[in-house]
Amino acid sequence: MAKARIETEPTTETTGNDIAWLQALEEKVHAAAGRILELREENARLQRRIEELEERLATPVTDEAAGRWVEEREEIRERVARLVDHLEGLL
């Protein structure tokens, strides 16, 4: 018994659904590629920022900078103490 062989010819006609599907896919691919580019740029920017911060951390604190921190801390402490005194006076 011989099997019947059905031959189909590829059609060059496409339906509107075929084109719409392909166009939607193309838009999604372009959007994904654009997002990947944005993420790569953001990643590069963040890597540079990390390097800058690591350099700052590696730089030893000078006596002058430490002195400014101590002075600033003392000034804040004095201001908070004055505020507490003022609030206690209102009670």
Can you characterise this structure?
It contains two helices and no strands. The protein has 91 residues and is mostly helical. The chain folds into two domains: 18-59; 62-91. The longest helix has 43 residues, at 16-58. The chain is elongated. The termini are far apart.
Task: Outline the fold blueprint.
Elements lengths: L15 H43 L4 H28 L1
How many domains? 2
What characterizes the major β-sheet? none
Determine Rg (CA atoms, Å).
35 Å
The overall pLDDT, averaged over residues, is: 85
How much strand?
Answer: under 5%
As residue ranges, the low-confidence spans are: none
Number of helices: 2
N to C succession of SSEs: HH
CA(first)-CA(last) distance: 109 Å
Helical/strand content category = mainly alpha
Number of strands: 0
**What percent of residues adopt helix (DSSP H or I)?**
over 70%
Shape: elongated
Quick rundown:
This protein has helices spanning 16-58, 63-90. It is mainly alpha-helical and 91 residues long. It folds into 2 domains: 18-59; 62-91.
